[in-house]
């Protein structure tokens, strides 16, 4: 703390606690470079990197997003190097001799000192120096680097790629973690995978309310970038089944509602009513509600009809009013949009449409009977 001036004496100290977390991230950045080249091809080139005690970040040249299976293969390749407990060897040798090693990876455009430090994962640098053209060196990570590294890949413990994104045209970025952070990501991934698979085997009625929250949890999690899209796809598949089931149920329910509405229309006419306001309970699906409207208006073409439907019956939540009015009643002064507005006035309903057909919605309604009465009174006043 405080100002620094020329001539001040300072004591430099290495933060070995932090270095212990930086080192495995740095070494695995090298191994990730090797794994990407192995999985995606020799055209992969490093475009930048960042290493700290929490994560590693690696930018590389590639023209498209990696698939979930490619990410998993890269991840598995790095994990195999960790599981094989490969020694990490370093040696300072002449730059020209280092550059002669067949599998050497260097950052394009970087200026290196001479002599230069070579970091090899799994093979001795001096062996490579003595036989630089050997094809077998292609099976190891070899880079020019002056940074801190582990002595053995086993010290990294585990490895998880948490992000794979584009940062520029033809440049991708991977973010990954090792050690405790990787273990935590693996545990969370296994937990979420178990819950997603349990959902796929659950009854669709049980799965439906859990889909949204579980998808949000998967999206927000720091699990493997190879696992996340797989879980999303599984949830999407379940969601499609739920929607298909719901469509079939709603289609059957719509037929029931049509019959009920026709009966109500017949009764209204027999009682001399000048309009029909009827609760049909089809949620907020305007398409299905209009199907009921069309069926009733076709059979009873002279009866103004307002269909009322709550988002969830008895919830006092959102409510939708859809109105249809014959030409004669429109000419008499009953306008569909005004009818809806009168019904929903107490709850601030909003909507629009044509004089003979319109719909309006309110976000809440705590008195469905009151809504219906307001609608009936308005229609009676216009058609008196």
Characterise the protein shown here.
The chain is α+β, with helices and mostly antiparallel strands and 384 residues long. Helix content is 47%, strand content 19%. It is built from 11 helices and 12 strands. Helix 5 runs antiparallel to helix 6 (204-220), helix 7 (228-270) packs parallel to helix 8 (286-299) and helix 10 packs antiparallel against helix 11 (368-383). It is elongated, with a radius of gyration of 34 Å.
Number of helices: 11
Give, in order, the helices and strands. HEEHEHEHEEEHHHEHEEHHEEH
* Uncertain regions spanning at least 5 consecutive residues: none
Main sheet specs: 5 strands, mixed
Q: What portion of residues is helical?
A: 40-55%
Strand order of the largest sheet: 8-9-10-12-11
Radius of gyration: 34 Å
Shape: elongated
**Which structural class best describes the helix and strand composition?**
alpha+beta
The chain-level mean pLDDT equals 95
Q: How far do the termini sit from each other?
A: 87 Å
Number of strands: 12
Strand proportion: 15-25%
Spell out the blueprint of helices and strands.
Blueprint: H1 16-40, E1 46-51, E2 56-61, H2 68-83, E3 88-93, H3 95-99, E4 116-121, H4 125-130, E5 141-144, E6 159-168, E7 171-178, H5 179-201, H6 204-220, H7 228-270, E8 276-279, H8 286-299, E9 305-310, E10 319-324, H9 327-332, H10 336-344, E11 350-353, E12 357-362, H11 368-383
Parallel strand pairs: 8-9
Antiparallel strand pairs: 1-2, 2-7, 3-4, 4-5, 6-7, 9-10, 10-12, 11-12
